[in-house]
Amino acid sequence: MSTDIKEVVKEKYGQAALRVHSSGSSCCGASAATESCCDPITANLYDHSQTSQIPEDAVKASLGCGNPTALAELNPGETVLDLGSGGGIDVLLSARRVGPTGKAYGLDMTDEMLALARENQRKAGVKNVEFLKGEIENIPLPDDSVDVIISNCVINLSADKDRVLREAFRVLKAGGRFAVSDVVVHGDVPQQVRDSVLLWVGCIAGALQDTEYIAKLEAAGFEAVEVEPTRIHRVEDARVFLTGQGVDVDAIAPQVDGKFMSAFIRARKPLAESRD
Question: With the CA atoms of 81, 226, 235 and 43 taken in that order, what torsion angle do they form, in degrees rounded to the nearest 10?
Fold first, then answer.
């Protein structure tokens, strides 16, 4: 199952990158329902002061559900890692915030997205960025090497979230911060929604319950875990991302009203114990 999900995600995100190259846009990885593809999850996440700093294609390729770069605390000289970096929007914004003495890594498993991200980096003229090919379950960086981990509507796509969080904990330095945007569930969700593999790419079926997300972070070793809702999705939002997926929208939508929300999730790796 995890391999199937990974291949579906890879295919859909690759298609999203190609749509950008053909002057289209993308929407949380799902097939575009409209030309503008502005669904309630991905729309209007970045303000003009941010989008004016980066190439248009980086904005078009944004598949996220939040704006972690606006909410995360980033300081000059720090090293930032974006899990599932896509077209590179959050990496490029982070690179500017950490400055020339800092570094921003983007990690993605999709060749088409990596190519698009590197082209956006070239257009932006940002030097302190490196895009890595790999999976978020196996981060290709050494232990204790990153100050901040960000991610934008990607961890919910993984079939092994516990491993993702353990890997995030491993590469963070002592006292390092976990600061991601993700879709979470508050309450029970119909099994029919969770069973649809296509919806994993639409940021819905793979979403954890908010309490479960907190428990998994704590099990991985994190402390000071917080979940801050940023958008609560209503019935009409459900119609947008369920239409065309073979789901009976009228039957399902009333059952998901207000249960899905975009959230900013914070946690911290404990400081190393002092030694005498």
Answer: -30
State residue 2's pLDDT score: 55
The 10s digit of each residue's pLDDT in 138-171 is: 999 999 999 999 998 889 888 899 999 999 999 9
Predicted confidence (pLDDT) per residue in 12-24, tens digit = 554 554 454 555 4
Mean pLDDT, to the nearest integer, of 57-62? 46
List all residues 6 or more positions away from 183 whose beta carbon is below 8 Å from its beta carbon: 41, 65, 153, 156, 203, 204, 207, 260, 261, 262, 263
The number of residues making up the chain comes to: 276
Contact 90, 68 (CB under 8 A): yes
Cβ pair 213, 184 in contact under 8 A = yes
